[in-house]
Every structure is written in C-alpha cells, then in structure tokens.
Specification:
- The chain is 39% helix and 22% strand.
- It has 479 residues and is of the alpha/beta class.
- It has 2 domains: 271 residues, 3-Layer(aba) Sandwich (Aldehyde Dehydrogenase, Chain A, domain 1); 182 residues, 3-Layer(aba) Sandwich (Aldehyde Dehydrogenase, Chain A, domain 2).
- The strands form 6 sheets. A 7-stranded mixed β-sheet has the order 15-16-17-14-13-19-20, sandwiched between helices. Strands 10-9-8-11-12-22 form a 6-stranded mixed β-sheet, sandwiched between helices.
- Helix 9 links the parallel strand 13 and strand 14.
- It binds nicotinamide-adenine-dinucleotide.
- Nicotinamide-adenine-dinucleotide binds next to helix 7 and helix 8.
- The site of nicotinamide-adenine-dinucleotide (NAD) has 28 residues, from helix 7 and helix 8.
Length: 479
C-alpha cells in the first residue's frame, strides 16, 4: 500500500474517501503514491478556513511574510535533488529538467520574500488645498489557485508565493494527474510558521474541486493556468459572479529562422524549444517558420540532431527527452501526427512509439516539413514533441505567418540582422519575444504571459504580479 497523501485544510491534514493513483509515465508499474481527492464539502471547509484566516494575514508585517517565504525557498532548495526526482518521476521530464524546475520554484519564493519587504504605496499632492491623497495596495482576500500538470512545482510557486507575499489567503488545487509536487510544497508550507488556514491544499478533479473554487463567493480572485478550453470556462464563471481572474493558457509559438541565421544557433533553439520537456510546454515552438535560402540546410541539420537524441526513462542518466505524460496525451499526439500526414505535411523524423526497458509513454520526437500555416497541426496546440517546418519566401512573409495564429504567448527569431531582430521585437504579436533564444525558457524576476487566446488579465511573475494579487485603494484626507 502506498502512502495516502491527505489534503491540508485549516492547518490539519484531512484524509478523503477518494484518492488518485499518481503513476510514473516512464514506468507505469511504479506508483508514486495515492493522493486525496477532495469533495465539494472539503473545498467549502478550505475556503471557510482561508476566509477566516485572511484578515489576520492581511495585517501581518512585511517581516513575517518575508520569513515564511524565505523558509519555504530555503527548504525547497535544500531538497532540490529529492523534489526534482519526485517531479521527474510523476511528470516525466528529465531529472536535470526536474531539478532545474525545483531550483526555479525556490528562486521564486526567495524573490517574493524580498518583495514582501518592498511593497510601497504612492502619495501625491491633491488638486484641492489641504487635501492629501495616497494610493495603497491591499490584499484581494482569498485566492483560488488552479494549476496544470506540466510544471508541477514552478507554476504553483509562481502563484502561491505572490499570493502570500501580498497578504492573501490561499486555496490551492494542483493538477489531478500530477499532485505530488503540490503536496510537497504544502507539506513545506505547513512547517513554515504560516498561521493556520492561510494556506490550504485541495487536490482532486477539476469538475469537483475546481468548480467548487470557481463558484464560491468567498474566493475573491482566481489565478488559473491550463488549457484554453478550461480557461474560457474559468473566465465565464468568474465574470458571472464578478470575481477577479487571471488566465495563462495555450500557445502555438513560432520560431522564425532567417537565411542569415547562425545555423547551429537556429537548430539548437528549435531542438530545445520544440522538443525538450517532451514538447509539453505552453511556450514550445511548434511552428518553425524557415526562409527558402536556409530551409534545406536547417531541416537536414535538425533531423540529424533529432536522430541522436536519447528518449528514455526520465530518471535515467543520459536521457534528453522523457516520456509523454500519460496515455491520453500520447493518443492526442499520435492523432495529430496522423492528421498532419493526412493534411499533406511530410513526416521526416520520428513520430513512432518507442519501446524501452520499462512500460512508459515513449514517443520519438516528430518533425514535419512542407507544412502550411492553414493545417490543423499548425493551428491547434498539440502539446507534445511534434513540430512542423513552414516555408516562407521572405522575412515579411515569415512575420505574417508567425502572427497568423489565435495564440500569442512566445515568439522567436533566429537572425544575425539587427534590422530584422529589432523589427520582429516590435511587431511580433506575443507577450514574450526571443531573439536567438528558444521560445521556451524565461527568467523568474520579470513578467510572464501572452496575448490573444494565450492569456487574460494581468501578467504573472516579477513585480508585475502585484497587479493581480492586490487591489488599489485611493485615500483622501483633509489635513
Ligand atoms: P487543463 O485545462 O485540463 O487543466 C488545468 C487545471 O484546471 C487542472 O488543475 C484541472 O484539474 C483544472 N480544471 C479542469 N476542469 C476544470 C473546471 N471545470 N473548473 C475548474 N478547474 C478545472 O490543462 P492541463 O492539461 O492540466 O495543462 C495543459 C495546458 O496548460 C496546455 O494548454 C498548456 O499550454 C497550458 N499551460 C499554459 C501555461 C501558460 O503559462 N500560458 C503554462 C503551462 C501550461
């Protein structure tokens, strides 16, 4: 019997009747653990606890907030190897990626520990004599946090840390598929000195736990990362009851490669951006838009690199790409590979299931050429190790193709031309632009987010996080 990981409600560990089995995608015989599935009543208790505790935490000192966040950051860092291993075991990204993401989570908590000491207001002269005006930021109250499975420690960190930093109470629901890292963060927070009820963990299904969070009038703001379809539902439900919400959703990110690009740089950007983390990143470059003069050399060099890439057990030394997260995501990837072929794109590399020493969801990274931007494989988010090369005649055409998408998260270009790089930075319709860098892979102290169907609401991370996690008050006083 594996350990039952309980929910954390009002400062207590609360077992549940139902549990999920967290299975290792590199070896489906390996069960990471059993994780509680909260009922609607559990969620109501968590929200009530958060509401009751929120007033006290809203009045906590910057030092208290700093100390809690700092302790969490320090423990995550001290346990980076163990937590990184848990991450790779439950999600399937390589151990190096798992440890890297864990370090990132620690850095985010440390950043917001510092921010807790720096929260400032503004005071300006009134237009009326004798009156003073000041603007202050106050907590929102209770924040509902709903996260996806693909960054099981970093995304919870970049929502929980600012929520607590700015004086809010939290009800946190990790992805049902991958709850292990969320539970581990909760266990660390439980020992951090945070008053009871300020942080609550409710694991389980979106249809039960997520819905209960969205619908509760006592949840004042919801921060969501996940698919565009669920995001629209979150938006409609929150707007219906006038709750604040913030959405980070999918992408169909372009990487433009121009004739004058450094070939090696372009190939490494494409390989990393499209296929690392098994392509399961919202910022993955699934559209490689390549101009005529470099097209064939680029395809040949990328195919050669792909042929040598090691796809294997995420925990094994030397693995460069781990398995797909589960059977249903693997089925979706294979469906799109079939669709791409039917649409007339040419599969030049990978796309087949791989057998390894253990039963897992191994897929050879798939590269299409001769794709057009009208094909479904170029328009819909696949969320797997699948990318297509689209030919462009010129920089102008490449830019137009890059922007011709309903999404707008991250947009990249490989070029040695300052003129084109500068023009692309100004004209790419995306929240983040990368020049000679992969579309995925960002800093933690600056804003993260997109445009169009990729994002809605204020940016996450860095100092911009205050926009979502606080509300502004303007006070006037006749002195
Ligand atoms: P998902 O939308 O299926 O689930 C996300 C979360 O929402 C999960 O916790 C899920 O349980 C919950 N949920 C599902 N139904 C719900 C409902 N009715 N009410 C409330 N909550 C509900 O997404 P996923 O498959 O876990 O993650 C993959 C998606 O996340 C991809 O589209 C990817 O692009 C996106 N993503 C975006 C970013 C970003 O920052 N833009 C980052 C990572 C992942």
């Amino acid at each position: 019997m594996s350990k039952h990981h309980a929910n954390f409600i009002a400062g207590e560990w609360v077992a549940s009747a139902e549990a999920s089995r967290n299975v290792n995608p590199s070896d489906t015989n390996d069960v990471v653990g059993e994780y509680a599935r909260a009922s609607a009543a559990d969620v109501a208790n968590a929200i009530a606890a958060a509401k009751a505790a929120s007033h006290g935490w809203a009045r906590s000192t910057p030092q208290e907030r700093h100390d809690v966040l700092r302790r969490v950051a320090d423990e995550i860092l001290a346990r980076k190897d163990e937590l990184g291993r848990l991450l790779s075991r439950e999600e399937g990204k390589t151990l190096a990626e798992g440890i890297g993401e864990t370090i990132r989570a620690s850095q985010i908590f440390a950043f917001f520990a510092g921010e807790a000491l720096r929260l400032a207001g503004e005071k300006i002269a009134s237009v009326r004599p004798g009156v003073e005006v000041e603007m202050t930021r106050e907590p929102m109250g209770v924040i509902g946090i709903i996260t996806p499975w693909n960054f099981p420690i970093a995304i919870p960190a970049w929502k929980i840390a600012p929520a607590l930093c700015y004086g809010n109470a939290v009800v946190f629901k990790p992805a049902d598929l991958v709850p292990g890292c969320g539970w581990a963060i909760a266990e660390i927070i439980a020992r951090s000195g945070l008053p009871k009820g300020v942080f609550n963990l409710v694991m389980g299904r979106g249809s039960v736990v997520g819905e209960a969070i969205l619908k509760s009038r006592d949840v004042h703001a919801v921060t969501f990362t996940g698919s565009a379809a669920t995001g629209r539902h979150v938006a409609a439900t929150c707007a219906g009851r006038m709750a604040k919400f913030q959405l980070e959703m999918g992408g169909k990110n372009p990487l433009v490669v121009l004739d004058d690009a450094d070939l090696k740089t372009a190939v490494e950007c494409a390989l990393n951006g499209a296929f690392f983390s098994t392509g399961q990143r919202c910022t993955a470059s699934s559209r490689l838009i390549v101009t005529e003069g470099i097209h064939d050399r680029f395809v040949a060099a990328l195919s050669e690199r792909l042929a040598g890439v090691v796809v294997d057990d995420a925990l094994k030394a030397g693995t460069q790409i781990g398995p797909v997260v589960d059977q249903s995501q693997l089925d979706q990837d294979l469906d799109y590979i079939r669709i791409g072929t039917q649409e007339g794109a040419k599969l030049v590399s990978g796309g087949q299931i791989l057998n390894r020493a253990t039963p897992g969801f191994y897929l050879a990274p798939a590269l299409f050429t001769e794709a057009t931007n009208a094909m479904r494989i170029s328009r819909e988010e696949i969320f797997g190790p699948v990318a297509s090369v689209i030919r462009a005649k010129s920089y102008d055409e490449a830019l137009a193709i890059a922007n011709d998408t309903e999404y707008g998260l991250s947009s990249g270009i490989c070029t040695t031309s300052l003129k084109h790089a500068s023009h692309f930075k100004r004209n790419a319709e995306a929240g983040m632009v990368m020049v000679n860098l992969p579309t995925a892979g960002v800093d933690y102290h600056v804003p993260f987010g997109g445009r169009k169907a990729s994002s809605y609401g204020p940016r996450e991370q860095g100092r911009y996080a205050a926009e979502f996690f606080t509300q502004v008050k303007t006070s006037y006083i006749l002195a």
